[in-house]
Design goal:
Blueprint: E1 3-6, H1 31-34, H2 41-50, H3 52-58, E2 66-70, H4 76-85, E3 90-94, H5 102-106, E4 112-116, E5 128-134, H6 137-140, H7 152-163, E6 164-175, H8 194-203, E7 207-212, E8 237-243
Parallel strand pairs: 2-3, 2-5, 3-4, 5-6
Antiparallel strand pairs: 1-4, 6-8, 7-8
Length: 249
């Protein structure tokens, strides 16, 4: 069963012209997004740690982009994506849980819609340019396997591939695990080794295109729980950009 919740509001976003896909996206392109008055103060305080302009540029977010965000949590990146894609774009927040902040945000920014339902449901009602997930992949591994033995990560990877346009991007970022730890610490330290993610996402049909070191923290020895006060916000995180192959001519 699919449930789509679309916020309605009296105020509309100012339309932004579509940018050619060949145009390079730079962190400076998001300067206005970062200082937008609609962003909560709590989000602004997290910017130094989360490097949003670099992340959005790496994922090639543009005005008019259609995005599916997996498990948006408190909406930090959802709000940024909503502002970055503008009124001609769309952000589909994919969550099995209620999002208390969503109604307030979409009352004035109606380009965000909630998709709730099984993982096997489509992530969006239209093909998207980008599937985005941050600090969630390890949690996907903790979901019980389905009747075919596929865990949540495998199901989400398949759903991402199906949702994307040919040539679309799958952005995955998470807390790095210690070398050799694989996926053994997903429910304890809430970490996963990037090598596991690359192997699994490529098995779903994607190609790894690039890695970013923007969230790299060499001081993190990968042995601490990511919520511990001494490391929270400063964990060593990998940022991976995968591409869905373009259709052959």
């Amino acid at each position: 069963m699919k449930a789509w919740h679309i916020g309605l509001g009296a105020l509309a976003l100012i339309a932004a012209p579509l940018v050619a896909a060949t145009t390079q996206v730079r962190p400076s392109d998001f300067a206005r997004v970062l200082i937008d008055g609609a962003r909560p103060a709590a989000d602004l305080m997290r910017d130094e740690d989360r490097k949003p302009a670099d992340m959005l540029a790496f994922a090639e977010v543009r005005p008019g982009s259609k995005v599916a965000e997996l498990n948006p949590g408190g909406g930090y990146f959802t709000r940024l994506l909503s502002l970055a894609v503008g009124s001609q774009g769309k952000v589909y927040a994919v969550s099995s849980r209620p999002l208390p902040w969503l109604d307030a945000w979409t009352s004035t920014r109606p380009n965000v819609a909630l998709r709730s339902g099984p993982i096997t449901d489509p992530l969006a009602p239209e093909p998207v340019d980008l599937v985005w997930t941050t600090q969630n992949y390890h949690d996907f591994k903790n979901r019980p396997a389905d009747a075919q033995g596929k865990d949540g990560a495998a199901l989400y990877n398949e759903a991402a591939f199906a949702a994307l346009k040919p040539g679309g991007i799958y952005l995955v970022s998470d807390h790095e695990g210690a070398p050799g730890s694989g996926a053994t610490q997903t429910s304890t330290l809430h970490r996963i080794e990037s090598a596991v993610v690359i192997r699994e996402v490529e098995a779903a049909g994607f190609k790894l295109e690039a890695r970013s070191d923007v969230l790299k923290h060499p001081a993190d020895d990968h042995t601490g729980k990511v919520f511990d006060s001494g490391i929270r916000g400063k964990t060593d995180q990998f940022v991976l950009k995968f591409r869905k192959p373009r259709a052959k001519r």
